[in-house]
Amino acid sequence: MRAILSGLHHKKNIQELELELIDVPEPFDDLAVTFLEKQSQASLTIPISKAVSADVVRIKVDANDLQYQAGSQSEFSWEMYLNLRQQHTRGLIQVESEYLSDRHQLTLTSYYQVNSDANGMAVFNMHTQQADNEFTIKAINLQDDQLQITGPSRINNQPIENQRLVLKNTSADSTAEWPITHMSLHGLFLGVIPLSDLAMDTTQQLFIRSTVNGQDLEQRVVMSQSLAGQVTQTITAGHRLVMLEKRYDNGIRVQETAALTVPERIAAVPGKVGGVTRILSTLMDKANLVYMRRLFRRGHRPYDQPTIVFESFGGRQVSDSPYAIYLLFKQLYPGFNFIWSIDRSQKHFCKENDISYVIRRTSKWVRVLGKASFWISNARFPSWVKKPQYLTYIQTWHGTPLKKLGLDIENVSMPGTTTAKYHVNFVREANRWDALVSPNDYSTRIFRSAFGYNNQILKVGYPRNDELINSTPDDVTALKQQLGIPLDKKVVLYAPTYRDNQFAEKGKYTFELPFSLDEFRKQYGDDTVLVLRMHYLISNALDISGYEGVVFDFSNHPNISDLYLISDMLITDYSSVFFDFAYLKRPILFYPYDYHMYKDELRGFYLDYEKDLPGEIAQNEDQLLSLIGDKLATPDMSDNKKFMAFYRRFCSIDDGLSSLKIVNYVIQQIQKNG
């Protein structure tokens, strides 16, 4: 017996769900659908209201019944079950889904959307407590000498009245307004701004004005997805360049400038040469990959002397837990052979610090990997790298998981793979690991399920955090001097996560700080500095000129633990850095400026973001700047009950000896194998 969600119809303020039934016995008037909320385990049972045919039935549900007061819970994810209540057949059948609904706005602050999970089962998602000053559009394009915007014209099937598009000049206190008169598909408008109406040499932000239930509104236009597939640049008949850009807060910015002249275009030709060079480089990489695969298949005899190969973040750094283990190994057992697998960018660092290395994806690299006794890495090796039977592969991983991993990612949207293929490859790679390092019971459970991991787990804490536990105040002073941080000032560390929607085009990433550096300097600049630690993909997009002495960019500093140690507080959003920073028992502030959009459109979380964090959540920039002062005034969180409960759950097993425990494990393996 099967039940499949095959349709959703809006009937005034009621939602009518259509189900296809396969091999379900009649009578249908004894059937019902039970909704089960994943997090709270609340349930709601609704009888079948209509039998359309022998295999199609419908139920009517008021989406407002699928949200309720449950503490601070604002997201409700309902699974659906066909409830069989016939005399001889009773039980529950989980409803599958062949139907994916569009976002349906219920009120200014809530909407629902029907999706399917990774197993194809129906999920009715309710989203509440949305920002009422944001208006989500479907598409935006520059074409036919117009700025064209498509968005909803109704809220819960009630028309939005008097909709107008508004452009606000970001550098001058001026606005311009255009009425929306064209309707697109049912429930959608098509708004148009002639490009000839745009003020010259301006940057403007897009808003929408309307009347909803008699209330006049002005809302910032936002897009949840990236601008990929949209037409975001055009040159007008007047030889003016118009560009669309998605801001850090998902808002839309319109820029109007003079287009390049013919001499300027000629001067830009060398950029095309660079493009050709990149194409040739790509072809060479593909040829090299074929060669590497062939070399690995040959096999190698192991070195006579125990040899350990270390790698961090795919060779991009010499850092993290592998580096902490390496440093202790070199101190205790200098007679072993230690080699780092690195990208060419790390050659200078290795030579400067007398570190033996091999360049990735070279024939020597294949030989070293194939002849080594141990690999110690914090990320995955390529699937085509062959692991010898005599080798022990220790995976340290690189953080306590907050965002979903591996098998727990229900819909994988990365290019070049599918969800099923990604899951298979992840499990295959994970089970090449002979031992996986875990920092706590919480992570152990997730690693088992998300990685499909069946081998040994070393629950010893992360070696990289030994530095946090063992460092002294003198060490911190020395670090500040080394990094050029004033000793008489407090330090605020801002370390946000990388967002998938910051991708602009191949090789280009965008980023803006989601708060004003001018305001930070005005309120705290006399006695506080701001340290930035951004994702390596976007670090080059930062411009902090003019803020020297107040703002420091250490995005490319190899050891983030150094930055934890010098900082009096941490500001983050969804990055797992707060799990490590909590070891210091210093205040943590969360600023998820796009929380609902990030959670819905990118990846979900393991923790309840609104309940389980070890610090307060700032909802907007004003609150963020205010809370910074509060947190700096309470530098020690040892007396904070909520913080210490988090500390005991996630940090308590790490005693500052994690590196030693991994070293001891390796020595035991060497002795056991003779």
TrEMBL record:
Key words of the record: Cell membrane, Membrane, Teichoic acid biosynthesis, Transferase
Primary localisation category: membrane
Its membrane topology: Peripheral membrane protein
Localization (cell): Cell membrane
InterPro entries tied to this protein: Glycerophosphate_synth, TagF_C, TagF_N, Teichoic_Acid_Biosynth
Keyword Zinc-finger: no
Similarity comment text for this entry: Belongs to the CDP-glycerol glycerophosphotransferase family.
PANTHER family according to UniProt: TEICHOIC ACID GLYCEROL-PHOSPHATE PRIMASE (PTHR37316), TEICHOIC ACID GLYCEROL-PHOSPHATE TRANSFERASE (PTHR37316:SF3)
Name by which UniProt lists this protein: CDP-glycerol glycerophosphotransferase family protein
Organism (species): Levilactobacillus tangyuanensis
Taxon lineage: Bacteria, Bacillati, Bacillota, Bacilli, Lactobacillales
